[in-house]
Amino acid sequence: MQTMDQIQSPKILALIVLYGQTLEECFTWRTLHNSENVTWAIYNNGPSPVAFPDSVIFCENLSNGGLSQAYAWGLEIAEQNNCSHVTILDQDTTFPETFFKIVQNAIIHTDSSCFLPTVISKNGFKMSPARWCCKQGREFKNDRIPQKYTFIGSGTTLSTALFRTIWDDSFMNLFLDQIDHYMAYKMRQINVVPALLPATLIQDYAAESTNRESVRARHAIWKKDLRTFGKLIHSELTMELWILYITIKRIVKFRDPFLFR
Length: 261
Description:
34% of the residues lie in helices and 23% in strands. With 261 residues, the protein is an alpha/beta fold. The protein folds into 2 domains: 12-206, Spore Coat Polysaccharide Biosynthesis Protein SpsA, Chain A (Alpha-Beta Complex), CATH 3.90.550; 212-260, no CATH class. The chain is globular. Mean pLDDT is 89; it is low at 1-6.
């Protein structure tokens, strides 16, 4: 049997989306940038210019165009550079230094076009993979991927061919919160079964913030994206009811009636 070193490693495009950080401040980059057989693509969403080394491909959108624009750009870069897979990264997640070795080994030895790590929040909440229930992701504590799954993007690896198959202009109507759920929705429509990576990531989950201004800003983005997502998957009434329910819960939790705005 051939060892992994004897088998040609897959060429992976690692896509990091930055916002409000330099590359040197990005813990994800500092942890993983020495990984082998990885092409780096950095998308700076602003608000300030960032210095990039010559070894990376980069794009700057200082007006904060959102994740959809970043993902679309990353897919084009992967195709232009003949990368077989794309790994989606962010600046708020702690990765093991061996993460890309784990991903490459899984690609070589697992018959799947999508690979998901386990992602937990700093408070121990299991965020991904999750069970898709009532048009939302629900915590799923078993060590496997549920049949009706969803996920968050951080650490997700897709074959470039699968990425191109599911991607279309409808994603460009989403800014942030529901893009990953929509990707999972479209993958379920074509019966893609992801593989679970033997890796656990820790994310600095923005929704756990108690800062009032941060909560208001995140809530406004979440409502807008959820309404758009509802239209895309033909579940507008369900999403409106969910928005009402979560808004009331957050008003009680943060004692902030402005969340109704």
